Amino acid sequence: MKILIADDEQVSRMVLDRTLRALDYDVDVAVDGRQAWEMLEARHYSIVIADWVMPEVDGIELCQRIRRANVEAYTYVILLTSKFEKTDRLTGLTAGADDFITKPFDRAELSARLGVARRILRMETELRDAKQRIEEKRRQEIEIGANIQRSLLMARPPEGATAFEFAAMNLPSTAIDGDFFDFFVHRSTVVDVFVGDAMGKGIPAALIGAGTKNTLLRSISRLLSDTSNGHLPSPRDVVQTAHSTLARELIRLNAFVTLEYARLDSERKVATFVDCGHTKVLHWVAKEQKTHELSGGNFPIGFVPEETYGQFEVPFADGDVFCFYSDGVTDARASDGDFFGSDRLVDLLGKHAHESPSELMYRLREAIRSHTSDLDLDDDFTVVIVRVGSPSEPWESTQRGFRSHLSSLTEMRQFVGFVGLDCNLDAKEIDELQLATHEALTNVIMHAHENSGQEVVDIEAERLTNGIRVRIVYTGEGFAPGEVDEPSMNIYREGGWGLFIIQRCVDKVSYGTLRPGVNYIELVKLTP
Amino acid sequence: MNSVQITSHKDGGIVTVYLSGQALDASNVQRFRHDTATMFDNEKFFVFVLKDLKFVDSSGIGALLSCLRKAHANGGDVKLAEVPDNVKSLFELVRMDRLFEIFATKEDAAVTFRS
């Protein structure tokens, strides 16, 4: 336990120093308040004994500085005073002093008061340790929950259902949630889509969500193996079968799950829905240029032990769009409490339904982000968008040219966001790809083109089986940095994180020359 | 040009600074440095609220660090609050979260100056 003495009177400083050493304390000495503050900035002292009256920085000022410094470990401050009026003590207490000793001091009293200080400091340390342990545990729990979410609850859009185009996205809230979705491809023209939400928050909800999703998939498989004549089990039967396994368990756990189970059949051009208390499905009808909200009347799974599920059918045509979403979307709140609401969602769908699901999804995500300022996602945000009709040629590669100027960066990031979504990257992966591309583009614009605005930068994107390759093609001087180490971080650093960021945000970076005078930077982002 | 909008509000010795815009990045960082140049002359304690800032890049980080340096030089500090997820991930990546204290709300940040 280190003690700092700050006293400008030499005699009293010396007496205090000797007394404390005799009591076996480890002591440092400052000759005035200013020096004491310098020493305090350099290291931590558990106890500071400071004279009230000192030139420049007095005991009160020193006390205030210590309290403002907001360091993690507590510093116990004892003020030395020869004045002991009540008002003075009040000033000292307000400044943050813990105790007072009047000069000349009594050795026994000093020792007793230091005993109090040690007791308080010990309690403070224990409290801080406990708080740290709790925070660490909480952080671990959130991490586990987020991993469950990414790996068990969500799915990537299916391959093989080529009569449809898909986009799916989940933005987790800070509290883990029980949203889930998955797809089951029967054949290229028939696909089941289901989206659900387990009531509650935290890991329990996530586990119930994962269990429900698993049960649904097993129910489909079992029913499929029972029917050998090529008929598909109806969506109603799938949900009924899952219910028979789940309902009693859920009731026992005092939990329930809302679910939207849909089969999209593009041969019959019919969609069949089993709605178990989930948010409405939006159906944009291309022919009418209008959005319908679809909902059925079943209870959520786990509400009642006996439930006979009903299904309903809706005809559709090429170009129609279905949008499944969790209530986290409509309940997303701005800081003034304004909900995003279904009207905004319907409006956005109407305006952009002719675009690809990925573009639509990107717009929705941006709309939610700007509505909530990225905060207050009380609930998970889960959206699945399905557009009917063979995708308008899924691009294998695509490219766009931009004026090489810093003012193009926002537009460039947006383009990278679109192509990333098209290649099934999730929200975090898109953020990382955008950041890496942005840093690389900034280098090109600033160093190869000196931000002249005269040159053109091409961004090419190539779809990989498990990710995306983005290539930035530019004229002028090329550059190829070597290995990039993690930059040491300190307050005096001005920059130099760019290359490190690029390297950490994507899976592969390479630099090269296409032909004389034309160079490229290639970034590969893989999905696990 | 989309520059970062800066509005500030002083209460009880603490200046809350709201930054909003498409980005704090290479395209507008010079302007940001210029706009914040005198901010630290007469005040010490700052809370920067980042919730309406959609994107920050490495040059944005440099600019924020230079704000922190100026505040420290005056015996003050800059704390960050309401930082969007993507920006927070970047801060963690370059370990900037070790230099800046980051709080969930501006109130949480302000309280640490007062205590």
Write a short abstract of this structure.
The complex is a heterodimer of chains A (528) and B (115). By secondary structure, chain A is of the alpha+beta class.
Would you mind describing this structure in some detail?
The complex is a heterodimer of chains A (528) and B (115). Chain A has 528 residues and is an alpha+beta fold. Chain A folds into 3 domains: 2-128, Rossmann fold; 154-388, PPM-type phosphatase domain (Phosphatase 2c, domain 1); 397-526, Histidine kinase-like ATPase, C-terminal domain (Heat Shock Protein 90), CATH 3.30.565.10. Chain A is 40% helix and 27% strand. Chain A has 13 helices and 20 strands. Chain A has helices at residues 10-22, 33-42, 59-68, 86-95, 107-153, 202-226, 235-252, 327-330, 341-352, 357-372, 409-422, 427-448, 498-505; strands at residues 2-6, 26-30, 47-51, 76-81, 99-102, 164-171, 177-187, 190-201, 257-265, 270-276, 281-285, 290-294, 312-315, 321-325, 381-388, 397-403, 456-464, 467-475, 508-515, 518-526. A 5-stranded parallel β-sheet of chain A has the order 2-1-3-4-5, sandwiched between helices. In chain A, a hairpin with a 2-residue loop joins strand 7 (177-187) and strand 8. In chain A, helix 6 runs antiparallel to helix 7 (235-252) and helix 9 packs antiparallel against helix 10 (357-372). The model of chain A has no long low-confidence stretch (mean pLDDT 88). Chain B is α/β, with parallel strands linked by helices. In chain B, helix 3 (85-93) links the parallel strand 4 and strand 5. Chain B has a single domain (5-110), classed as STAS domain (Transcription Regulator spoIIAA, 2-Layer Sandwich), CATH 3.30.750.24. The longest helix of chain B is centred in the middle third of the chain and has 16 residues, at 58-73. Classes of the chains: A alpha+beta (528), B alpha/beta (115). Chains A and B meet through helix 3, helix 11, helix 12 and helix 13 of A and helix 2 and helix 3 of B.
